[in-house]
Amino acid sequence: MTGKVFAIGFNKCGTTSLHVMFRKSGLRSSHFRHRMPDGTREVIALRMHENETLGLPLLDGIDDATFYCDMDMCLSNAYLSGIGRFRELDRQYPGSRFILNLRDPANWLRSRSQHRQGGFLRRAMEYSGVRCPDHMRRVWLGQWHDHIASVRSYFRDRPQALICFDIERDDPARLARFFADLNVQPRHWSHRNKTTAEPAAPAPRVLAAA
After folding, report:
1. Whether pTM exceeds 0.85
2. What is the pLDDT of residues 59-91, one digit of tens each?
3. Phi and psi at residue 146, to the nearest 5°
4. Radius of gyration of the chain measured on its C-alpha atoms
5. β-sheet with 5-7: strand ranges across
6. Which of 166, 172, 184 is nearest to 23 (CA)?
7. Which long-range contacts (CB under 8 A, 24 or more apart) does 72-76 make?
C-alpha cells in the first residue's frame, strides 16, 4: 500500500494519541507542525494554505512523513482547515488512507472549550464574530455534523480508504488491523494531552492485533 495516512477528525479527538501511536510504531508522524530538516517546524495548515495559493500540491515541502493529524489552525483573524481538504489530499496522494477520529460530541465540545485554558474558544469567537460561548459551541456542533456527513458520503463506496475510530469506545486493535501493512502497534495507544478538568473517558480494552 502506497500513500499517506491522514487523521481528518477535529482537534481534541485523540490527535496526540494517534500521533504518538504512529510515531512509536516507527513511522514518521506530524502533529499540527511538521519538523523540517533544519529543525524548524512548519504549521501544517499554514503550509497547506500557502501551497494551494502557489498552485502546488498541499504537502509540498512537508511531504516526507507518513502520518498527518491536527491539521487545522485557529487564530483570532484566520481559520485554516486541513481536515476539510480531505478530497484534495485524496486526489493528490493516491493510495492514502484516512482516519475519521471521533468521540462523544458533548465531551468534544467541553474539551475544545477548555483547550489552552479557553484560549481556543476565545480565538474562535473573535474570528467568527460570536459573543456568546454557547453560540460558538452550537456553531462548532453544526460544523461537526456537516464534516462527518461529508467524509462519510465521500468515502461511502471505498471502505478500504477510511476507518471511523471512536477514541472513547473503540479498541485500538481496529487501527492495527486496518494499518497492518504499516505494523501499527495497539500497545502504543493511550489517552494523551487530556485537557485539564476534562471528564475521564473509559479506557478501551486493548486486544492483540489479528
Report:
1. yes
2. 999 999 999 999 999 999 999 999 999 999 999
3. -65, -45
4. 17
5. 41-43, 33-35, 29-31, 67-69, 5-7, 97-102, 162-166
6. 184
7. 72/10, 72/11, 72/45, 73/32, 73/43, 73/45, 73/46, 74/120, 74/123, 74/124, 74/127, 75/123, 75/127, 76/122, 76/123, 76/126, 76/127
